[in-house]
Amino acid sequence: MYNTLIFDLDGTLVDSIEDLALSTNILMKENHFPTYDLDTYKQFVGNGVDKLIERALPEKYKKDVRKYRARFDEIYKENCLKHTKPYKGMKELIDELYHQGYKLAVVTNKPKVNAVTIVNHLFPNKFMYVFGNTVYQPKKPHPCLVQLAMQLMESNKNETLMIGDSNVDIETAINAKIKSVGCEWGFRGKEELVQAGATYTVSKPSDIKDILK
User: What span, in angstroms and rounded, lies between the C-alpha atoms of 68 and 33?
Assistant: First the structure.
């Protein structure tokens, strides 16, 4: 039934919240702004780096995101693999799906350069395509990168699943007119995924195999 799986990255394939929080808090400290804990950052992420920085900045500075973005990129480049790791059971799942012949891709709102670095380091040679945010395409929930991945992999809508941990991923699937899997272990939790309209929800990576049977 399904032969193509398109994964989100942060909160789905990898637990990256500690490095995202670390990098943003370094930026905040350098500018003498308040810092935040990990749970707060779980609500800040999901809509790309500009939105992450905007949410972290004090109210009077939120309009100056572009001013702080370049420095954030420098900090995160140095820290994006410091603590980031696959969720328990995810590496084994991806290895199994790859060897079974599933077509695998990543579509994330993380900047493409960081996404490629992380995926190539933690899941080498397993994904056919890794699409991250660039200046050339809109971010999820716009479906353009999911649709591009499907086109390049020669997959149709009935064969494709979008797998992610937030309402952004579920809305992306809806916009692309494909089915979705909500990952309860991610940054947002089951309630948000159900409310967003996830076709399926799973509590651990190996549960995805049951959907594919």
Answer: 12
